[in-house]
Design brief:
This protein is α/β, with parallel strands linked by helices and 770 residues long. 36% of the residues lie in helices and 20% in strands. The protein is built from 26 helices and 30 strands.
Length: 770
């Protein structure tokens, strides 16, 4: 099965249908360099070498490895083997640590604060210094601890994305993200230049604030989502596998080496011991007679501030008899000051300290020059290697699970040889915060495990550089006395039909609305954009043209498509009928005319919630109002002479008066609700209702464009509406439908209408459709 895509000066480019389907797979391709894996430093473990080799070949990639799995070595070797001018950007404290790590694998890495200080192939700086560099001087950039993209201010994040936009090679390194942290994933793909965050959401996600659906196996239930807390997104049900396949094409996620089949030796975590302490306090809010519950972040901060002294006694009891190293995580500047003053020999690292002081104090702690480090999570809780110690205290908690998790992982990481002891000291009235952190922690563990389970096979394929394949194709056929139906891909089915065998085709093509109804690459709706949709649709147009008799018609039901800011970058209307006309003409059809089907704007407003159709918009600013989107029937004729005239008047299916009404370019009197019953066809994973064509519209197409006894084709049959009307008005029908649920309902509808209309011999000497 072939399609002519483009004509070049030197000839014609031909693409096979199977190859087209493979290319439809939404996947980030290789755009990096080929290097010799043997050149990777021997100090790296096998899994680290494979991830490095893959990332170099990808050119733009993310390394989501859990803490302690060696992201630093991977990014350094990635930069060295690329052999391009590279800038590594990291949090301040991590930057100095990375310079020390580079020496372990014989890489000369310089910490720099501005462009003038760069004198080597690979340099490192911190995020606060990015304005001091001319990024056009670099061919490669690494973001270390790139989860900072989620935390830093939107203005800074956008600046970083803009500065690195034209850099060819990019690597993003951070710990394994939770699979539902779509903000972070969106920031990652946008910085890498793989796609915009809005494009990612449009491809794979749905707004969970809108109508939700769920099923008990027998019935589908729907309820409205909540807008509380802003927009919430979830992966479209049919998009789950496609999403994880796509994610694996640009990101490698590992919690432990065995996730990809490697040996875990040396990467087995020691025990983690949690010791919560709830200090009894006598606390009464200023504006209440007695304390009832924490009423938000401001209330939580007030409680924490007023209970410092109560908690300090418990802290001193815990560490007073220890001569080991400790990290004390504080959240308030007042906490940090009081704790460091109360503990002799402790070192406090504050946000106001210079970069040099912070880096030096962290290095001194790593080198065991002092025993007690007092600092905040946002200063020392990300990226640092503090396996030198195995004891820590949270001197209070907030609601941030990420801060809690990252702080623990500074010590509880691979290469830690001792059990890690984590003490949590909070007041008894803050128990709800502790319970919330534990709930988030349990949820995050499940989600991370699910992420790894989902991407495991895809990641193996990526690491092994396996080529894409398409699932084995299967189809099913059923038939009656006057109809046949195929559960399969219409492109595959139509190539089996005889040329010039169809009298009329009537159908409504799907449109690019990814993973709404199926997860199949054979679904035209599963197209990333208009170009891909139209290239796929061209196969169908060609096949329908081949099987249609010369001089006969194809009736295509279309409508303009709303343009949405998230998908299209603007709010308006896209000319889908115009694109369909152009596509048919390109493949050899003659555009023969069109009919507009009158619509009720109020009914459409209620159904679609379109802002442009609402009375409130009319009263607010009618420049934002628009007409209802009107359905159209486009008529296309196959070139050549029609050897069998279509005679609806002679067949007594049409009189002059009706003809005058139907010949009007605007079809009126068609009920929008007169369709086949379709609710049972909706699968539990479908994101939208099926939208069957109105029966009266099909009736007009069938009677105007075919004779009784002739063959009517619907390549996108849905639940069988076109076939139903064809049989009702004494035609024969060939129906093709890809989705199994629709096909099952289609069979029932066809058997039902045939039982009402079929009489032996009703089609003369023509054989039954088989």
């Amino acid at each position: 099965m072939y399609l002519i895509l483009k004509i070049y000066r030197g000839g014609v480019k031909i693409i096979k249908y199977d190859n087209f389907l493979i290319n439809k797979t939404i996947k980030h391709s290789f755009s990096g360099k080929n290097v010799n894996k043997a050149d990777i430093n021997s100090k790296l473990f096998d899994f680290q070498k494979d991830v490095t080799f893959w990332a170099i070949k990808k050119g733009r990639a993310a390394v989501f490895l859990d803490t302690g799995l060696g992201k630093t070595f991977i990014q350094l070797e990635w930069a060295r083997l690329l052999n391009e001018k590279t800038l590594i950007i990291a949090p301040l404290s991590v930057a100095k640590q990375t310079v020390r790590e580079a020496l372990k694998i014989n890489i000369d890495l310089n910490y720099v604060r501005n462009q003038d200080q760069i004198n080597s192939l690979i340099s490192i700086t911190n995020y606060e210094m990015i304005d001091n560099f001319d990024m056009t001087h670099f061919r490669a950039v690494v973001l270390d601890e790139s989860s900072i993209l989620k935390a830093i201010a939107g203005k800074t994040r956008k600046k970083l994305t803009k500065l690195c936009k034209n850099i060819k090679y990019k690597l993003s390194c951070t710990a394994t993200p939770a699979p539902n942290d779509y903000i972070e994933l969106g920031n990652q793909v946008e910085w890498l230049g793989i796609c915009r965050a809005s494009e990612m959401l449009a491809m794979f996600f749905i707004n969970a604030n809108k109508e939700l659906t769920f099923s008990d196996g027998n019935k589908i239930y729907r309820k409205k989502g909540s807008n509380k807390g802003g927009t919430e997104w979830r992966v479209k049900h049919h998009a789950e596998q496609a999403f994880f396949r796509w994610l694996s094409s640009w990101a490698i996620a590992l919690i432990k080496p065995s996730d990809l089949g490697y040996d875990d030796d040396g990467f087995i975590l020691p025990p983690l011991n949690l010791y919560p302490h709830f200090v009894t306090v006598d606390y009464k809010p200023e504006d209440q007679l007695f304390f009832s519950h924490i009423r938000g972040l401001k209330d939580a901060a007030a409680i924490r501030k007023q209970t410092i002294v109560n908690r300090l006694g418990k802290l001193l009891d815990i560490i007073k008899s220890s001569n080991e190293q400790w990290i004390i995580w504080t959240g308030l500047s007042r906490e940090s000051q009081i704790v460091s003053s109360a503990i002799e020999g402790s070192v406090e690292v504050q946000g106001g300290h210079t970069a040099e002081y912070k880096a030096q104090m962290f290095e001194d702690f790593q080198d065991k020059k002092y025993n007690i480090l007092v600092t905040k999570p946002k200063i020392g809780g990300f990226g640092m290697n503090f396996q030198c110690a195995h004891n820590m205290v949270f001197f209070g908690l907030n609601y941030s699970w990420e801060s809690y998790y990252q702080c623990i992982r500074r010590q509880w990481r691979y290469m830690q040889e001792k059990p890690v002891n984590v003490y949590i000291i909070i007041s008894d009235i803050e128990t709800s915060i502790y319970k919330e952190i534990k709930r988030k922690d349990a949820l995050a563990k499940r989600l991370r495990q699910e992420l790894i389970r989902q991407v495991k096979d895809y990641e193996k394929g990526e690491i092994e550089m396996k080529k894409n394949t398409i699932p084995k194709y299967q189809e099913n056929k059923v038939y009656g006395h006057s109809w046949s139906a195929y559960n399969g891909d219409c492109v595959e089915v139509l190539k089996k039909f005889n040329e010039n065998s169809i009298d009329l085709s009537v159908y409504s093509p799907p449109f690019a609305d990814l993973y709404t109804y199926t997860d199949s690459q054979r679904d035209l709706g599963n197209s990333k954009n208009w170009n891909e949709f139209l290239n796929h649709y061209a196969f169908v147009i060609q096949r329908v043209l081949r099987v249609t008799k010369p001089g006969r018609l194809s009736c295509v039901h279309v409508s303009d498509i709303p343009a949405m800011a998230q998908k299209d970058g603007y709010i308006g209307v896209r000319d889908f009928p115009g694109a369909v006309i152009k596509a048919h003409k390109k493949e050899g059809w003659t555009f023969y005319g069109r009919c507009f089907i009158q619509k009720n704007p109020q009914a459409q407003a209620i159904r679609t919630h379109s802002k442009g159709l609402l009375f409130v918009q009319l009263r607010k600013d009618s420049a934002g109002s628009r007409p209802a989107l009107v359905d159209q029937i486009l008529l296309f004729k196959k070139p050549g002479e029609n050897l069998t005239p279509v005679m609806p008047v002679k067949n007594r299916e049409l009189d002059n008066e009706t003809w005058i009404s139907w010949a009007n370019g605007i079809w009126t009197g068609i009920s929008e609700t007169n369709t086949l019953q379709h609710t049972k066809a909706r699968g539990a994973d479908d994101e939208k209702h099926i939208c069957p064509l109105q029966l009266e519209t099909i009736e007009r197409c069938v009677k105007l464009c075919s004779n009784p006894g002739e063959m009517v084709l619907s390549p996108f049959a849905g639940i069988g509406s076109e076939g139903y009307q064809a049989i009702k008005y004494n035609r024969r029908a060939i129906l093709i439908e890809l989705k199994k649920e629709y096909f099952n309902v289609l069979q029932r509808n066809m058997k039902a209408i045939e039982s009402k209309t079929y009489l032996p011999g009703m089609f003369g000497n023509k054989e039954d459709v088989k």
